[in-house]
Every structure is written in structure tokens, then in C-alpha cells.
Amino acid sequence: MNTIRNYINAMFSSLPKTPEILRLQAEMMENMEDKYHDLIREGKSEHEAVGIILADIGSAENLKAELGITDVAPQPTQDHSAFLTQRAAFQRKFAIAIASGVVLCICAIIAGAVCDAFTHNDTYTCLAFFVPIAAAVAIFVYFGIREDWYENRYKEIYHEAEPESKGFSDAIAAIIFPLAVVIYLILGFVFDLWHPGWIIFPICGLIVAAVEAYEKLKARQ
Amino acid sequence: MLSSDVMRGYNDSIILSLLAEGDSYGYEISRSIQERTGNAYSMRETTLYSAFNRLERLGYVSSYQGTETFGRKRTYYTITPAGRAFLREKREEWTLLQQVINQFLREGNV
Questions:
Q1: Is the complex ipTM higher than 0.85?
Q2: Less CB within 10 Å around the terminal CB: N or C of chain B?
Q3: What pLDDT is stored for residue A129 in this prediction?
Q4: For residue range A51-65, what is the model confidence (pLDDT) as tens digits?
Q5: What is the 3-state secondary structure (H, E, C) of chain B?
Q6: A156 with A167, same domain?
Q7: CA nearest B61: which of B87, B86, B83?
Q8: What is the helix (H) or strand (E) element at residue B66, kind and residue range?
Q9: B72: nearest CA in chain A?
Q10: How many whole angstroms from its chain centre is CA A212?
Q11: Do A46 and A102 fall into the same domain?
Q12: Is the same domain home to A157 and A169?
């Protein structure tokens, strides 16, 4: 009898708990009990009785179909197709923006070096270096935020589960990179250690990549 | 054994016709169906109980709590006038349907 009770409970577990459905569940339970006792009276063994009952009940899918409950994922509609074209257009822009950001960073280094070589003026050199860097950072931040928005919308529409493990490495990256910038600037301005100081960035990149890889490995297990 | 697909349109009529003979409850109805059809059709429990649910919502049956000899409570169903009217309609439809399908599937036609 417990097997039957568990089966019925499991079958109803995916259904909304409306009073109507709860009543249906209770009713099914009472009647299955009757049926069970009848089968035993007819001389069936316990196992046989349970087997017969389970075979006749039907499945959760049957039940949902009979009750007209649908739980299919919403299909992309007109509204979504507009969003998808928007997203595709943005992805092209995003790629261009990231590329120009990188180019700006390279330009900053060249501009700084050139300025230093010709003017020997620290203020000009700093300006020549930091202005393009600031522009690049602005681009990265702006497009990064918009990219996030598009991806979240996309996941909402398609019910894509976010990889749960990402939280930790993201948090680390969010702390470690601004920290690296601060340390780098202090090393540079205070101790004039620009040259070996830059190594902090690849080190941070490696740390974050390692944490991410570790998380992925753990998630797969 | 008839498939549930073929029987889909008739489940409500079968249940109502049994209730027209007297009040009954789930298990008794499913047993009656099996006995009368000589096990040619057995209504799945999920089908039967969701049919009760639907028929009650439509106002074709109403339910009440009765007690059994062992003291356990049990939900009984009774057919309403609206249910009888619906059953009459279905009976007429069935007569017509038989005539129509017979025009095509009568033995000797094939």
C-alpha cells in the first residue's frame, strides 16, 4: 500500500497544489485502497495487487494531459524574434567595441613611449598614456553592462540555467582586478616600478583562470 | 483491449451513463466498466478521476461524502439534470455517428 501511496504522491508532485487537485489526489488514494483490498480478497498476493494497480493508474503525463495542464517551455514569439535580431546586431557592435578598446590600450603604450622619447615631460607622458586607457575602460564598462543585459534577457527567454559555479570566480575577478590596478599605480608612482610592476596583471589573469577551471572541474563531478 | 485514444471522446458518456443508473464512486465505476466490457476496456485511473473533476466543474455531476462499512470516507457522485441532458445529447450523437461510420466501415464494404 505504501508503494501505491508513494507513486500517487510522486505523480501529483509536479502539479499545482490547487484545492481541486488535492481533492483529486485524496480521492484517488481512497479508491486505490479499495481496489487493493479487493484484489487481496480475490486471492492476489500483495506484490501482484500493487503491480496491477500501478499498471492501471497511468502516468503524471497522462494526468497533466487529462487536466489540460501544459508545462512546455514558452516558444520564442514575435517579440522575441525582434529581441534576437537586436541581440545579433549588438553582438557585432560588441566585438568591434572590444577590439577598438584593445587597440586603444596598445595605442596608449605607444603614445606614452613616443611622448616620453620626444618631450621628456612626465605630465605629458602620463596624459598620453592615461587618456586612451580611460577611453578604453569606458568602452569596456559600457559595453560590458549592455552585454550583461542582453545575456540575462536571453537566458530569461530560453530558461537557460546559469552555470551555478560561476559566482565564485566572478567575485574574485571583480575584486582582484581593481586591486591590481591600485597596486600597479602605487608601485609605479611611488616606487617607479612600472617595469616589473606590470607583471601583476598576467598573474591576476592566471589566478582567475585557475579558479574558473577548478570550479568547472568541480561542477562536472 | 481498446486504446485510450479511440475511447477519448466517450469516457464522459460512459461515466455519466453509469451514474444515471445510480450514485457511485471511483473504484466501483472503474470496476463496472471492466466487467461490462469483459475487460475489453479499462479506463485509466488518471483519466477517470480527472473526468470526475471536469464533469463536476461543468455541472454534470455533483459529489458528496459517504461512508463505507469500514468507516473510511468515500466520495460519491450523482448525476445532475444538466448531466442527464448532456447524456441524451451524446446518445443521439452516438446513434448518428454509428450510422455515418457504418457507411464506410460496415463489413462487406471492404
A1: no
A2: C
A3: 83
A4: 989 888 888 888 888
A5: CCCHHHHHHHHHHHHHHHHHCCCEEHHHHHHHHHHHCCCCCCCCHHHHHHHHHHHHHHCCEEEEEEECCCCCEEEEEEECHHHHHHHHHHHHHHHHHHHHHHHHHCCCCC
A6: no
A7: B83
A8: strand B61-67
A9: A30
A10: 14
A11: no
A12: no
Integer angstrom CA distances of residue A29 from A131, A211, B33, B45: 74, 51, 19, 11
- Domains (range + CATH), chain B: 4-105 (1.10.10.10)
Which residue is it, cell 441524451? Answer: B88
Convert the pLDDT of each residue in A111-161 to its tens digit: 888 888 888 888 888 888 888 888 988 988 898 888 888 888 888 777 766
Single-letter amino acid code for the residue at B53: N
User: Quick check: A4 contacting B, CB < 8 Å?
Assistant: no
Number of structural domains chain A divides into: 3
| A208 inside domain | yes
- SS3 of B67, please? strand
- Per the CB < 8 A criterion, the answer to whether A33 and A1 are in contact is yes
Report d(CA A87, CA A176) in Å as an integer: 30
C-alpha grid cell, residue A217: 572541474
| Chain A residue with minimum CA distance to B24 | A31
Residues A48 and A85 in one domain: no
